[in-house]
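Sanity check record (used in CI):
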Amino acid sequence: CLATLIIMLVGDTYTLINYVSFINYLCYGVTIIGLIVLRWKKPKIFRPIKVNLLVPITYLAFWAFLLIFSLYSEPVVCGVGLIIILTGVPVFFLGIYWRNKPKCVNRLIESMTCWGQKLCFVVYPQGGVAEEE
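Expected output for AAA1 protein:
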């Protein structure tokens, strides 16, 4: 979010849309790759919707063509898009991967989560006793 705010203040909206479009298409492709890998490694798990493997493989072929063409035609935009994605890596390591955090870091993360939920009007159910209506 911080990188996006900085880009919005410095650049124009068209450039930001290009960055986000590259990121979206990259994530779509990685999702389809994950679907194919799961179909190959765990063929017996329950799937509510099951399609012929030709559909995701065809999508992946077009995706690869578009992604390679984007990297060739606009390498700077793609590079900045990758940098925007990589800004999430420290957040992952600080918030998820680091298990034995000090209490002050846990309190900071919890307060930021609560603030973000209030800001975006998002409330997740608590793990405690359910209240009666």
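The CA atoms of residues 76 and 122 lie 35 Å apart. If this sentence no longer matches the regenerated tokens, the check is flagged for review.
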